[in-house]
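During the reporting period the student researcher (J.K.) took over the structure-prediction task from the postdoctoral fellow and processed the backlog of single-chain submissions. One of the processed entries is reproduced below for the supervisory committee.
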Amino acid sequence: KIDSYNRHRRTTETKKLLPFKLLISAESGRRYISGYCQDIKNYMSLRVDYILSAEIAEEAEADEYERLSLEFAELRSHCWGVNLRRKQLEHVEFTIYAAKNEQYIVNRLYREKRIGTVQRLDKDHYVFKADVSDTNEMSPWIKTFIGRITQFNFSNRSIENRIKNDIEQMGKNYGIKGMKL
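J.K. obtained the following structure tokens:
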């Protein structure tokens, strides 16, 4: 049983959580306790710095723990960050240009791909592909490749359009005409 502060509602909430893993956000460095929330019948992550108190309320049945633990592992295999909600997977695909003398870009793509795959298309182009539970969690990372992305293909068109609009707006802010994907 975990009492935590909800910063959006500015209230204290009590959740019954079957914990599985401590996660650290690569973007923010924040720590989260992740597990199955019995109250909402779904998986969730709670920020550790928002936890006010925790106590053992009851022990989980061994077979229930095993089943939920396996389901948790499957969810984590498609999780970019800390969002663990069960929902339909979203496909993310984008192509990067890296010239012959820019191997550091390719190295970075391979190093940071997490759950995705990287494939070389030709001597200067690489495609990143992933099926993720939440494309929105990836958008800050994807935006770090602005100027190198030559093509997008997201199943979540609203996120794809938002990134494209952000690129166009950035071009306007800096006086660059026709900055688009």
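The committee noted the following: Residues 157-173 form the longest helix (17 residues).
J.K. will present the remaining backlog at the next meeting.
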